[in-house]
Design brief:
- By secondary structure, this protein is α/β, with parallel strands linked by helices.
- The chain contains 3 helices and 8 strands.
- The strands form 2 sheets. It has a 4-stranded mixed sheet with strand order 1-4-3-2.
- The protein is globular.
- It comes from Nocardioides aromaticivorans.
- This is Glyoxalase.
């Protein structure tokens, strides 16, 4: 694994760090790098380091009160080779999606919400 300084990091504020770790490692192919739940954990997939911050973490405490509500429209994008197979696999695991599968000029995508409501976009680029 690359060192943390070589990874692209994205912070998600989560309601339950252990639940978030289980979601990302079980369903989306991440591996645990650090886990000091209930405050914080980070999981890695490729060059993406996802910082999972619970309410006791410094990352969550730094969030201004007027911005601490529900997640916004931002999301991480995880490329997949076969989006229909991924949708089938995740649905069989009991997960539900936050959007329908849509296709456009760049490819196909669907949104999945983690246990805290943070969005994950599964994306299959258009074949060239």
């Amino acid at each position: 694994m690359a060192s943390p300084s070589e990874l692209v990091s994205v912070r998600y504020l989560v309601d339950d760090v252990d639940e978030a770790v289980a979601f990302y490692t079980t369903h989306l192919g991440f591996t645990v790098h650090t886990n000091v739940a209930p405050a914080f954990a980070d999981v890695v997939r490729g060059s993406l380091r996802l910082l999972l911050s619970g309410s006791a973490s410094s990352g969550a405490r730094a969030t201004p009160p007027d911005r601490s509500g529900s997640p916004g429209r931002n999301r991480i994008n995880l490329p997949v080779d076969d989006i229909e197979a991924e949708v089938e696999r995740l649905a069989a695991a009991g997960l539900s999606f936050a959007s329908d599968l849509v296709s456009g000029p760049g490819g196909s995508q669907i949104l999945l919400a983690d246990p805290s409501g943070n969005l994950v976009e599964l994306f299959q680029p258009r074949s060239t």
